[in-house]
Amino acid sequence: MGEIVLKPGVSVVGSGDIRRPDGMILNERGFYDQNSHIMPENFIETGGMISDDEYSTWIEYVPDSYTGNDPVPLVVSCHGGGQSGWGQAYGTSWMNVADREGFIVVFPDAKKQHAWRVNRTPDDRDLDSPDIRFLKALIEKMKEKYNIDDRRIFMQGMSMGDLVTLQFARTHGDLLAGAACAAGPAEKTTLFTDQGNTKKHICPVPMFESRGEHDSMEGHEQRFIKNKANLDFWRQINGCTTDPEFEINMDNNYIYFQGNEADVIYRDVKARGHGQTFDDADFVWRKFFSRLKRVNGKIIRDKSVKEIRGDDKAVVFAEQCSKIYVNNKIIPLEGPVPYIVQDILTYPQDVPEPILENFKKMHFDFEPVLYVPVAGIAQAFQLKAKISGETAEIILPDGKHLRFSAGNVGCVCDNTIYSMNRQAEFKDGYLFISAKWFAAMFLNRFVIENRGVLYISDHYGEMTWDMSEFIKTFLK
């Protein structure tokens, strides 16, 4: 295994596709939201007549470890609209990962005005475009020139490169052991018929989809519809019929789908715009491509590589959802569904106007609270509970007894009073308390909260808009 070396340089702001003097590192903030690095010296800019009697260009990167004696994997990485293969090489860490892992990576240039010709229509016209034929020919060219392991050929793309990668996976997926798409989901009408059936595809393909939370000109709701359609397309094709597994770690939000034929991974990054994070290539390789090969048309998952799992210690509750997520399983919740209470500030009655004005000046918004039945909290954290009408007792892991009573903001733990962030409530014959307060106060857990979803874990993280919506979809 080789060593990754990131050379020092000067950070600048500007376009990701303009050639920079040696020593400059781009931090792009604009239409594209991405970063770069110092380019290595041994990449090869070349071209040739390899398809449709048109001259095409691309960049090849061959790590120093390559000898030609043993077959190595190939990664084809496709740039975004308005960019080039050079810009994709500059703005990703694929060459760094290639140094460490010993594979070859090629960065093709779109054949027409830096834009891939992809199908955007509701029908299946132009699925076999000149660019699709070019990418197929480029793979064959790399197999002729280098000792490529044809069981381990992968494709990845960003933005419009996402769309062309998706299209290639649909039309020539039998050539790929896996694909990864960043920041360019297709429209639902491109993937599904009006009757909800998947449109043309050749075979199951392992799929890794990377997104940025704020990557949308249409708003979160439309973004979610599009992202969900792309996930649903590959989940259906790949036979992903079991419950998903979740992981939230720092700003990375993951959903893992295990398929009968091939797996699907969804990654959503908190507070990111349009583009790919600099570490996206490393995540794609370590979590996905490193485990995959295609043998005799079937996807083989290498058991020697660490299996990807969700957060083993995560507990997830969601507003108006009858299921909970515990130990990477979705199970029915004991008791009624959780609900959110947003307190409305009230003012004292029958007080002089000047005093009332002072009260109003001190106004602040109370934080909303997700109320969960005590029975459900005990179930999720595998605790013993004694519930009797409007009172309840939970036995904590250290053996202490925690007692609640309806209407009381106070609770008692081993004869000591604690004030909760909101009072216990008796509703529909069940006693409810704040799940966030309980998990943080008495179990010392991190609580990640967004739009009616509580993700309780043993480490820090930040939940994206889409992640909260996906969780509610699966816990309904």
Please name the defining characteristics of this protein.
single chain, 476 residues, alpha+beta, ten-stranded mixed sheet, five-stranded antiparallel sheet, 23% helix, elongated
How does this structure look, described?
There is one protein chain. α3 (130-145) crosses α4 and α6 (220-238) crosses α11 (465-475). A hairpin with a 4-residue loop joins β23 and β24. The protein has a ten-stranded mixed beta sheet with strand order 4-5-7-6-8-9-10-13-12-11, with helices on both faces. A five-stranded antiparallel beta sheet has the order 18-17-16-29-28, sandwiched between helices. The chain has helices at residues 85-90, 94-101, 130-145, 160-172, 188-191, 220-238, 280-287, 353-361, 374-380, 435-442, 465-475, and strands at 10-12, 24-29, 33-35, 43-51, 54-61, 72-78, 104-108, 148-158, 178-182, 207-212, 245-249, 252-257, 264-269, 292-295, 298-301, 315-318, 323-326, 329-332, 339-341, 369-373, 384-388, 391-395, 401-405, 410-413, 416-419, 425-427, 430-434, 446-450, 453-457. The radius of gyration is 26 Å and the shape is elongated. By secondary structure, the protein is an alpha+beta fold. The model has no long low-confidence stretch (mean pLDDT 92). It starts with 9 loop residues before the first strand and ends with a helix. It is built from eleven helices and 29 strands. Helix content is 23%, strand content 31%.
| Oligomeric assembly | single chain
Low-confidence stretches: none
Give the integer mean of the pLDDT values.
92
Query: Spatial order of the strands in the main sheet?
Result: 4-5-7-6-8-9-10-13-12-11
| Biggest sheet descriptor | 10 strands, mixed
> Roughly how much helix do the residues carry, as a percent range?
10-25%
| DSSP strand tally | 29
Shape: elongated
N-end to C-end Cα span: 45 Å
* C-alpha Rg (nearest Å): 26 Å
Provide a count of the helices.
11
Please indicate the percent range of residues in DSSP E strands (runs of 2 or more).
Answer: 25-35%
Derived structural class? alpha+beta
